[in-house]
Amino acid sequence: MYSHSLYVQGRYFEVTRLLNDDSYKILKGNSATFSYFLFYYCQSLAECKQLVTATKYAHYTCSIQELYELTINSNALKNYLQDDFGICII
User: Fold this and answer.
1) Residue 9: how many CB atoms within 10 A of its CB?
2) Do the Cβ atoms of 27 and 34 come closer than 8 Å?
3) How far apart are CA 28 and CA 31, in angstroms?
4) pTM summary value
5) What is the share, in percent, of the chain residues with pLDDT greater than 90?
6) Structure confidence at residue 9 (pLDDT)
7) Cα 30 to Cα 12, 13, 15, 49, 86, distances in angstroms
8) Pick from 61, 64, 62, 42: which is nearest to 53 by CA?
9) Which residues touch 6 (CB under 8 Å, ≥6 apart)?
10) Is the Cβ–Cβ distance between 37 and 26 less than 8 Å?
């Protein structure tokens, strides 16, 4: 996934620019793909100091991950955001 590639390269601002009306329409059609995109999107937002928005999208991705019973991914994101940015996702 393109967002993962950008995230790994440390190009966080570019990841934050990926979610627009066109990409949203495509991504929301497949919630599993949308969740993986949001996984990197919210981390990139946090890296760019957009903590309120990062928290919102972290809630979304954790909820979707847990619906798919992928609690390992959800817990990893929660721990990362808590440890690095002080964002607590319940």
Assistant:
1) 10
2) yes
3) 6
4) 0.83
5) 32
6) 94
7) 23, 24, 19, 28, 30
8) 42
9) 12, 14, 15, 18, 40, 44
10) no
The label of the residue with tokens 């847990």 reads: 66
- Torsion angle of alpha carbons 81, 64, 90, 24, nearest 10°? 60
Give the position of tokens 């995230």: 7
Structure tokens at 75: 């817990």
**SS3 letters for the chain?**
CHHHHHHHCCCHHHHHCCCCHHHHHHHCCCHHHHHHHHHHHHHHHHHCCCHHHHHHHHHHHHHHHHHCCCHHHHHHHHHHHHHHHCCCCC
Identity of residue 46? A
